[in-house]
Design a protein that fits this description.
375 residues; four-stranded mixed sheet; 8 helices
Length: 375
């Protein structure tokens, strides 16, 4: 029985998407394997958190769980249900009344009304494909990494296609023949009066193919468990919370079925110098009082480690922002496009003054150009 996803993430049933995402990121950082090496409890918690988030982040899966609880995912976990697909597992449950608009069509329309995908795994009549699970990991990078982009190496273990049988589960490495009992459909049909009921074929366990001689390496499953390494390219300009997808890089499907996908959530650490707003950057710079009053230039260091001379107009006030075009973050959507850099003008008041400096400031304080004076 799956654990209550709301309890796993520690959120209320009416929690917003933002609250769910916030709770998820907090817990996934806490229990991440990189932070808890050789800690089985943390590893299990990490899986629970990811499974819970996989349900609650998807409106269809969340609605299915709210209505039916654990029964919504009977026959497979939330990840196995896919995105926008059948929320009831492998789609091995069918009804029809023969000819015309059968009970299956009626139920399918009813489920669409609830906001779910096709009931019974869609309209196909072939054997269901038991696709591999999607996998999810998270990486935390610096803002400078987000500026330049980087390649992140992920190491993990998962089911992969069996090398010996090429995923078919057969001793000769070729597709198994169609099951003689179900004719390759994966289902057998029985009638009880007015109703016709379908159930997975007991001869082939719903695969639609009968494996007479199983592969000696995978024992007929078509998969084997191995250590894997993936190189994930994180594009320049990526934003905090972005999710990257590597199609077909998840777990291998059983007996030649398609593999799942691999997802990488990207988090960006707060930077000491820059504050990010979309593709724009803001940096706070202390400017000498004389430069603010009389005008001049200051030198700043950009995020790509370049020295930049910035003009300060005479009379610039503390709190104003000086705009430097094209020195912000690169756009992840439009190649060659950059945001702007804003300099938040501040001033540092000296705590120790020489006698000469004090004298000059006192003379300045006594100088007035209008009724309000300088200060």
């Amino acid at each position: 029985m799956n654990k209550n996803p709301y309890e796993v993430l520690g959120v209320a049933r009416d929690a917003s998407d933002a609250d769910i995402k916030k709770a998820y990121h907090k817990l996934v950082m806490k229990y991440h394997p990189d932070r808890n090496p050789d800690n089985k409890d943390a590893e299990e918690k990490f899986k629970e958190v990811n499974n819970a988030f996989d349900i609650l982040k998807d409106p269809q899966k969340r609605a299915a769980y709210d209505r039916f609880g654990d029964a919504a995912f009977a026959g497979g976990n939330a990840s196995g249900a896919g995105f926008g697909g059948n929320p009831f597992g492998d789609g091995a449950f069918h009804f029809n009344m023969g000819g015309g608009a059968g009970m299956e069509d009626i139920l399918r329309e009813a489920m669409r009304g609830f906001g779910f995908g096709d009931f019974g795994g869609g309209p196909q009549r072939g054997a269901p494909q038991r696709g591999g699970r999607d996998l999810l990991d998270e990486v935390v990078i610096d803002l400078k990494d987000a500026y330049f982009g980087k390649t992140h190496t992920v190491k993990f273990s998962s089911n992969v296609e069996c090398e010996k049988c090429h995923g078919f589960g057969t001793a000769d490495g070729k597709p198994a023949p169609a099951c003689p009992r179900c004719g390759g459909s994966g289902f057998i049909q029985t009638r009880q009066g007015f109703f016709a009921m379908e159930a997975p074929c007991p001869e082939c366990n719903g695969l639609g193919r009968k494996i007479d001689k199983k592969c000696s390496m995978c024992n007929g499953t078509g998969t084997e468990h191995k250590q894997r390494t993936l190189e994930v390219k994180i594009p320049a300009g990526i934003e905090d919370g972005a999710r990257l997808r590597l199609a077909g890089q998840g777990e291998a499907g059983a007996n030649g079925a398609p593999a799942g996908d691999f997802y990488l959530d990207v988090r960006i650490r707060p930077d000491k110098r820059f504050e990010r707003h979309g593709n724009d950057l803001i940096m706070r710079v202390d400017v000498p009082f004389a430069t603010l009053a009389l005008g001049g230039e200051i030198e700043v260091e950009t995020i790509d480690d370049k020295k930049l001379s910035v003009k300060v107009p005479a009379g610039t006030q503390v709190g104003e922002k000086l705009r430097v075009r094209g020195h912000g973050m690169p756009s992840a959507r439009r190649t060659g496009t950059y945001g702007d850099l804003y300099i938040d003008v501040a001033i540092k008041i000296p705590t120790k003054l020489s006698e000469k400096q004090k004298k000059l400031l006192n003379e300045f304080a006594g100088t007035k150009t209008d009724k309000k004076g300088w200060f």
